[in-house]
Amino acid sequence: MRAIAVVLVVLSHAGIASLEGGYVGVDVFFVISGFLITTLLFKELDRTGKISLATFYARRATRLLPASTVVLLVTVTASWLWMPATRFKSISLDAIYATFYGINWRLANEGVQYLNADAEPSPLQHFWSLAVEEQFYLVWPLLLLIFALLFGKRRAPVIISLILVVAASLTVSVLQTASSAPWAYFGAHTRAWELAIGAFIAVGAARFAGLPKALAATLTWVGLAAIVVAAFLFTEETPFPGYAAALPVFGAAAIIAGGAAGSPHGVVAILRTWPFQQIGRYSYSWYLWHWPVLMIVPHMLDVEPNIPLNLGLAAGALLLAVASYHLIENPARNQKWAKAKARRGIAVGLALSCLAALVAQVGAMKPPQLAKGDPAVDTTQVVATAADPQAELQRIITASAGTGELPANTTPRVQTARRDKPTYYDVKCHLEYLDTVAPSECAFGDPAGTRTVYLYGDSHAAHWFPAVDAIAKQRGWKLLVRTKSACHAASVAVYSTALKRAYTECPAWRDQVLTEIKQAKPYLVVISSSANDGNPLLNESGGRLKGTAAEIDPKWAAGWTGTIKAIKARGTRIALIQDTPWPGRNVPECLAEHSRKISRCVAPASESVALPERQALVAATVKADGVSVIDPAPWFCVGGSCPSVVGNLLVWRDDDHITTKYATMLAPLLGARLPK
């Protein structure tokens, strides 16, 4: 079964489209683990009448940590050498969390942060499942020990406790999958029931062994079918784990339960053949190696990942796994000195963990450096003092498209660009996915100003804050900011690809804000939103609305009409800043990889405007309602090119948000287009 699980996971990660749901292999691993560990614990209990926690954890340490530590050390080193320098500190932190089996909580927290949405997965992300298992085993052996002390060898209390764990954890999984998918996916609390199902099969193994052979064989085939169906039918859009996880989990449980009867006609007979046994033997090491190889080697070769390459890398990772098993995993597990006493095994585990953490920390303190060229022109100063700021900026853009090395005075620094967010994020005035109520004031510009101005929209409105704030201070405006991640300014219902459900928090917040603006009757409302389809319109069943542009674009235009009507009032001016160009890649990472030739990070203007036909339709629609429309594209792209660094200014902080420095530089140009 481990062979089936690891093959599903590896092929899914390699990009095989028909096996997009291969991530269910992890759920199969959870059931297997729960079954095997509980079986071992009960054997010890039956043999000795007790459970030695020290022996258990020593055995886990010598079994898991030698191989995982080597993978961690190699991954950190390879990341230092070949991954973008912008990512190394994050990867180092991932390594520390992975070392101490807490990376699942870090990933869950990162997953609900919108501005991390474009980040490439960590080469250590797959350690989350190992973290979930070890968190479960911090509790489960202790519970069994308590049951043994209180009830001896009676199984009924254990069964009752497992039923309660399954009921509670599955309920939480279903509820949290519907509300916060990242926490549900990576959480130990939402996965505990899967390991408990395996433990339940272990407790009832004797009874399952007595099943009629024909029934047992049928059960195994039904179980295999459930896993295969899940792997082929589930996609990245499937709300998971939730109810959906029941299919592969109970499928795996059915194979184990049916296999206990030993029918020669069941799936187990096939799983005992040489190919499955060999892959199963190397499954742990293959799982450890495959993901870092898939993530790092394309950067090392400076090529874009593709399926043939990924399959070759997966095969190479299997060879690494075989070597790792025979040279590290198996010898360490059978090392007599460490096995002789539990405290030795625990000491070995602690030493390995501390070594991995130390290397990661040292690497974070000495991150890789970028090649840099001569200093470039100070774009902000030149534009601010120019007689014609736009003409001067376009001249600098044209010159920057042919820049070779990364300017030495690039600002903000490429390595820290990810953290370059508008200041009002720090005071929680920008709302994340699950938030619906902002702090009461969130006033900027000139707080004592007699004219009130609103900045309203999603994160693509938020990245204009430095420019709008500078203008507001200059003109004595009181600036109120109302922005929320991935929440479109248009009055439409959308599906959240991050939460994997209807984005209900968006209209709840939007309705409050539009009502507030209507009642406030401000002097000016500045609106902006992403034009991309990252969060598509919602269909009647709560999923993605699919259709042609001719069918969908008018719905977006109607949504914009709804928003404009909701806030339009006598004396209120409305300005729509159309979406900024999209560079098509994570800009800081591209620059970090190509700091000697940053022209490789120049985006073609023809590919950088998101959904131009829809934007044109929306612009025409709102203009008819008296809205001023501002097209910012000429401030980013000239002559068909959109450079990532303009003079000394880094333009984008990721793959779609502009940096605070670039936005600040644009204040004179934006101010000239806004109503006075």
What would you note in describing this structure?
- The chain is α/β, with parallel strands linked by helices and 676 residues long.
- It contains 29 helices and 13 strands.
- The strands form 4 sheets. Strands 1, 2, 3, 4, 7, 8 and 10 form a 7-stranded mixed β-sheet that branches. Strands 5-6 form a two-stranded antiparallel sheet.
- α3 runs antiparallel to α4, α22 packs across α29 and α24 runs parallel beside α27.
- The mean pLDDT is 93.
Number of helices: 29
Topology, number of strands:
13
Structural class: alpha/beta
Radius of gyration: 28 Å
Fraction in helix: 55-70%
List low-pLDDT spans.
none
Shape: elongated
Strand content: 5-15%
The CA-CA distance between the termini, in Å, is 70 Å
Please outline the major beta sheet: 7 strands, mixed
Quick check: average pLDDT? 93
Salient structural properties:
elongated, 676 residues, 29 helices, 7-stranded mixed sheet
Summarize the structure.
The protein is an alpha/beta fold. The chain contains 29 helices and 13 strands. The strands form 4 sheets. Strands 1, 2, 3, 4, 7, 8 and 10 form a 7-stranded mixed beta sheet that branches. Strands 5-6 form a two-stranded antiparallel ribbon. A two-stranded antiparallel ribbon has the order 9-11.
Please give the structural blueprint.
Blueprint: H1 2-13, H2 24-48, H3 53-82, H4 88-99, H5 103-111, H6 127-151, H7 156-179, H8 181-186, H9 192-203, H10 205-209, H11 213-233, H12 246-259, H13 267-271, H14 274-281, H15 283-301, H16 307-333, H17 336-340, H18 342-365, H19 379-385, H20 389-400, E1 430-431, E2 443-445, E3 451-457, H21 459-462, H22 465-475, E4 477-484, E5 495-496, E6 501-502, H23 505-520, E7 524-528, H24 549-567, E8 573-577, H25 587-593, E9 603-604, H26 605-608, H27 612-623, E10 628-630, E11 641-642, E12 645-646, E13 649-650, H28 660-665, H29 667-673
Parallel strand pairs: 1-4, 3-4, 3-7, 7-8, 8-10
Antiparallel strand pairs: 2-4, 5-6, 9-11, 12-13
Helix pairs in contact: 1-2, 1-14, 1-15, 2-6, 2-9, 2-12, 3-4, 3-15, 3-16, 3-18, 4-18, 5-6, 7-9, 9-12, 11-12, 15-16, 19-20, 22-29, 24-27
